[in-house]
Fold this protein.
Amino acid sequence: MDNNQFLLPESPIQEIRHPLLEQKQVKLAIKRDDLLHPVISGNKWRKLKYNLIHMQSKRCDSFVTFGGAFSNHLYASAMACKTFNLKGHAIVRGPILDENNPTIRMARACGMTLHVVDRKTYRLRNDGDYLQTLQSEFPNSFIIPEGGTNQAALSGVIELAQSLPPSNYVVCATGSGGTIAGLAKGSPTNTNVIGIAVLKQADYLNDDISQLLTNSHSGASWQLLTNHHYGGYGKFTDDVWTFCQLMRQTYQLPLEPIYTGKMLFAIWQLIRQDYFPRGSTIMAIHTGGLQGLDGLRYRGLISR
Ligand SMILES: Cc1ncc(COP(=O)(O)O)c(C=O)c1O
């Protein structure tokens, strides 16, 4: 594998114009990282890039990673196998695997080997002993954590931060905290990085993010907002989904309601509530994950 194949042109930035933004005198733009790569898009690519480079430098012949059956990370990792001709194993949260689930079908079609485990075993995904066992089961493999979040992932997100024009606020959806950590590390000190937690009771993520930032963090200040989960992980309200559809129709901006839709809906509410001072510039990061729409349709959670 040659590192040059990982060099991608930067994704575009889309400016949003709307009477609310004019009334509140704020500027809103979207970094369209969903358009970064045709199949491994968004923060998944940002987080995988340096993991794959690391794997290559360690001369590992495969990687092992973890994901739920509908996970964007599983999809992106499978796509990376296909695109870069890699061998990949995924430990998938079971207890059973629905072979008709679109993410699983795609992962199989990409040639990824799936190992379904029960929930109890899956909970061990960050446990040192369990990881040792996996390492002996898959010798010469590089282990990538769930969601792709580790120090190597941060390097890719720092590149994203450094590609952005100056703005007062950079906002992203937060699940494991890797993306907000990378953005905080890579953004200028006068930028405020805001993470919209997409899960309930997400305050524990503050510690996870601080830990990811330990090596002398000298970037931007950051803040995690935990009241915009709209029902919790994988859940969403009708308002969030209606907003996603409206954004697609009005701005040709595709969103899904689990991550990016929640994030932009939250930004909209925050603008209404005058959270951002007049004159602020806000950069919202579209972190991709649009494959998730197929999973939501498959489960009958959305109709279109
Ligand atoms: C589309 C999308 N956006 C945002 C996130 C959250 O990123 P992080 O886990 O780095 O906080 C995820 C999950 O990883 C995701 O799939």
Remarks:
- The pocket of pyridoxal-5'-phosphate is lined by residues 42-43, 72-73, 147, 149, 173-179, 259-260, 287-289 (CB under 6 Å).
- Residues 3-38+157-298 form a domain with the Rossmann fold fold (CATH 3.40.50.1100).
